[in-house]
Design brief:
By secondary structure, the chain is an alpha/beta fold. The chain is built from 3 helices and 6 strands.
């Protein structure tokens, strides 16, 4: 369970988060941005394809917004897409930020841990 005051945000148009009680489930990039702008986000999990709820937008758009606004999670970014190209697109944005260790394989996709600073 997340620490008091720290939240976890899960962006996916179709699939509920595996730990529903501890993740804020959002289905559009706009809703994701609102959750992130509220601050105190510990972990983020992004899907790539959002066509059912946010046509024309992807998880890479959410990652690019985090890069542009410096609104990154304090601990980790998980990329849980079934699209290998989507995994790579989001991981490249996280890498570009310089804040995360290189992505590692995780049971749900790719995991980008925040670098110790």
């Amino acid at each position: 369970m997340p620490d008091e005051g720290e939240r976890t945000v899960y962006l996916d148009d179709r699939h509920a988060p595996p730990l529903r009680q501890s993740w804020a489930w959002v289905k559009t990039v706009k809703d994701f941005q609102e959750q992130m702008a509220a601050g105190d986000v510990r972990n983020v999990s992004l899907d790539y394809h959002l066509g059912r709820s946010d046509p024309g937008r992807t998880g890479a758009d959410a990652a690019r917004w985090m890069l542009d606004t410096s609104a990154w999670p304090s601990q980790a970014l998980l990329i849980h897409s079934g699209s290998s190209g989507g995994l790579e697109a989001i991981a490249c944005v996280a890498e570009e930020s310089g804040l995360f260790e290189p992505a590692e394989r995780h049971v749900l996709g790719l995991l980008c841990r925040r670098s110790a600073s």
